Amino acid sequence: MSPPLPPLDRRDFVRLLGSGALAATLLGAAGRAASPPATATDAPVVLSAAGSGRATGYGESSKIITCGDRTHVAWLDAELTGFWVRARSLDRRTGQWSPTVTVGEALDNHGGPALTIDRQGFLHIVYYPHHRPFRYRRSLRPNDSSAWGPEIQFGESLSYPVLLCAPDDTLIMTCRRYYEANDQRNEMELWRKPPGAAWQRQGAIMRSRYLDYAHFQDSTAWGPDHRTIHLSCRVYETNPRPGGKPIETLGYLVSPDAGVTWRRSDGTPVTLPATAETIDGLLHGGDTTGRTLYAGALAVSPAGVPHLLHSVREQGVAHSYLATPAPGGGWTRRDLHPFLPAAWRDHDLVMTGAVTFSASGRATIIGTLVKLAPGETDWAHPSSQIVRLWSDDGARTFQSEVLQPYDGHGPHWLPNLERATGHHAIPELPGILYTAGSGGTGLHERELNNQVWWRPANPART
């Protein structure tokens, strides 16, 4: 096992300043600095053999941060003693990984972490609940995941953290508020934590239209001005019609003022809390449509164009699409299936992944390939494999590869892609985590012994 990463000293700060990671005075200045080059440090590694049934799940919650010459990752393990949020760091100079650090406990397999980083290089992590208060910690040292400050609890009946870090180091989080008594409609809330202050609930961005279960699957990303927040969601609502299938809506909102007010893509203001009827709706599924929708985490190109990732399963076949605003209104959807490796085009491409952009403008997408028999479902299907697509022409055309190894240790699924959430650069080969192994049979199943893989690309990469 490699030695732990040492605390930062004066020379470390000089080096980081030179890389642009600490010199940023606005969010994204580090992101505009030169990305770390692709080296042998991108070699595949099994980071854990104790992964939970959703070890790297919920791709909207970014679990990978590259700052200067270190990359930090977090995931969720499951052992006999409980569910544990874990972290490790890669020293990109040497290719060595730090020992595993336990950040804190989670309630069940839904309690995995979300990471971001501020302009001083401190890491911030939110984790723990499934309809409970969140836990929050900040790293004790900049650019170092080996030690964390005190655990702080906040909120109630919350799940699924999605983090951003603003230019002034204010943390901005969206999450779901769930009313278990089913006497109120569930909400997507926005929270803020100014530097040195407590977490503060700002209010609901969205609310479900019906009582009972709802999930928003929201993801957020900064625009180039580092004030505009783009938000995508797949709203999944319980059908009020007895026996009816859940109602699904793929949608989008944008805030020009860091989450205070929200609009549709055409600039039309939206009264909060928005609903699946008032958001900018791209596509509808479930109910009587015959379609099942999935969504990946969005990203914004250097030119300020939001890119929304989603898939549609219809008549037993699933394709994934990249959607961008169309001139004159509406959305243009590009089918990604023709860009898959030829030998894998008999598989479905389902989207629980993400899209990201490096400083050069390279677009990277990750998703899951599956090949189903009649009556089978996508969830933890044994055929699941992780596919990586990349584009250097403005996301018009893509190259692709299926990440090796293809066999062993159950399905390869639940990919998590490094995305721009704070003051950090996205490498040309952004980090990818995924789970190899079973989804388990329930929220509290432990000791599945799933593997957590680090695998940015295959050896002969581009």
CATH class: Mainly Beta
Mean pLDDT: 91
| Strand element count | 30
- The radius of gyration is 20 Å
Biggest beta sheet attributes = 7 strands, antiparallel
Distance between the termini: 29 Å
Using the alpha-carbon principal axes, give the shape: globular
How many domains would you count in the coordinates? 1
What percent of residues are in strands?
A: 35-45%
| Strand order within the widest beta sheet | 7-8-9-10-11-12-13
Tally the helices: 1
Q: Low-confidence parts lasting 5 or more residues at pLDDT below 50?
A: 1-38
CATH architecture: 7 Propeller
- CATH topology, which one? Methylamine Dehydrogenase, Chain H
Sheet/helix structural class? mainly beta
Provide a descriptive summary of the structure in words.
The chain has one helix at residues 10-19; strands spanning 45-51, 64-67, 70-79, 82-91, 96-97, 101-106, 114-117, 123-127, 132-138, 152-165, 171-177, 187-193, 200-207, 214-215, 219-222, 229-237, 247-255, 280-286, 291-295, 299-300, 306-314, 317-325, 331-335, 348-357, 363-370, 385-391, 399-402, 412-417, 432-436, 450-454. With 462 residues, it is an all-beta fold. The chain has one domain: 7 Propeller (Methylamine Dehydrogenase, Chain H). It has a 7-stranded antiparallel β-sheet with strand order 7-8-9-10-11-12-13, with no helix packed on it. Strands 2, 3, 4, 5 and 6 form a 5-stranded antiparallel β-sheet that branches.
